[in-house]
Amino acid sequence: MKLKSDFFSDWINILKDILENHWGYDISNVSDEELPFVYFNAEKRRPDQRPRNLILSDVFSCPSNLQAGWERLKDMVKDGNDLTPNLSKLVNRINNKDSMLNDWGVHHFHLGENLYGQFMERTGPLLFALVTIESFYAINIFNHAAWADDDIVEIIHKNWPDVISQYQIKGVISTTEITESERLTLRAKNANAFVTVSDGTVYAPIGGGVVGAGYNLQAIMNTDRQRSTLKALEDHLQSQLVDLKETLSQHGYSGEDEIEAELEITENEYVAILPKFNVAVTLME
């Protein structure tokens, strides 16, 4: 019995469905080779809907004219509502890449009160926040041009060093000061740079950094990791076919040389569907 499958292609089709039918992107010009990178780029930009702990930095302060919008966003964070309306409108452009997010892992949110179309009204000052699976770390409200202000990382380091400890570069002392203008230039050229805070601690890109094509390095690594995982699952299923023979026979198997399998991914499981026999096999939980 030989397994006939292409789990990686099945996974690509699952990503296409999410991008097109759940997030509304036009991916007609995206190649299958590039699609995983595009998907992970979009996923990184769009915090998933889940209740999060709201944690303020020790310097956080909201201007009175933005207070109503901030109160609204706070409720959305705590209740696990969709935060996309408060993001930049560029989140709807499939090929747009958020350079501050890729460099420092920081999202920016508008604090408008009213919804116009898909997005909240735009505001000049923006809330910068570090968003993790469990928590929403509100750094502070900055002006619209503060994309490379070192104070952003300084506040994160001072308040939540454990959250970004994995990016700390041990045993390195940086003597080169990078200005905001220089950092913006490096980002525009898809180049990475360390950042040094006031106590001398040096951090690699907290957002993962980018490769030359502008995609987040983590997107490339995640794609490679997924390819290896899916190949391992195919090999495992192939090794289990003999043990599944009795079950398959109960569902119409009559000695075929090839057994076709398709991949499905649920919230908690990787499942192989054997469509000819209407059999599902859990591969990984």
Task: Describe, in plain words, how this protein is organized in 3D.
It is built from eight helices and 13 strands. The chain is of the alpha+beta class. The strands form five sheets. It has a four-stranded mixed sheet with strand order 2-7-6-3, with helices on both faces. Strand 12 and strand 13 (279-284) form a beta hairpin. The longest helix is centred in the last third of the chain and has 24 residues, at 217-240. The mean pLDDT is 94.
Summarize the SSE layout with pairings:
Elements: E1 2-4, H1 7-22, H2 35-45, E2 53-56, H3 67-79, H4 99-104, E3 106-109, E4 115-116, E5 119-120, E6 126-131, E7 135-142, H5 151-159, H6 180-188, E8 195-196, E9 202-203, H7 217-240, H8 245-249, E10 258-260, E11 262-265, E12 270-274, E13 279-284
Parallel strand pairs: 1-10, 2-7
Antiparallel strand pairs: 3-6, 4-5, 6-7, 8-9, 11-12, 12-13
| Helix vs. strand class | alpha+beta
Oligomeric grouping of the chains: single chain
Helicity, as a percent range: 25-40%
Q: How large is the radius of gyration?
A: 23 Å
List keywords for this structure.
285 residues, 4-stranded mixed β-sheet, 13 strands, 33% helix
Compose a concise summary of this entry.
This protein has helices at 7-22, 35-45, 67-79, 99-104, 151-159, 180-188, 217-240, 245-249; strands at residues 2-4, 53-56, 106-109, 115-116, 119-120, 126-131, 135-142, 195-196, 202-203, 258-260, 262-265, 270-274, 279-284. It has 285 residues and is of the alpha+beta class. The strands form 5 sheets. The protein has a 4-stranded mixed sheet with strand order 2-7-6-3, with helices on both faces.
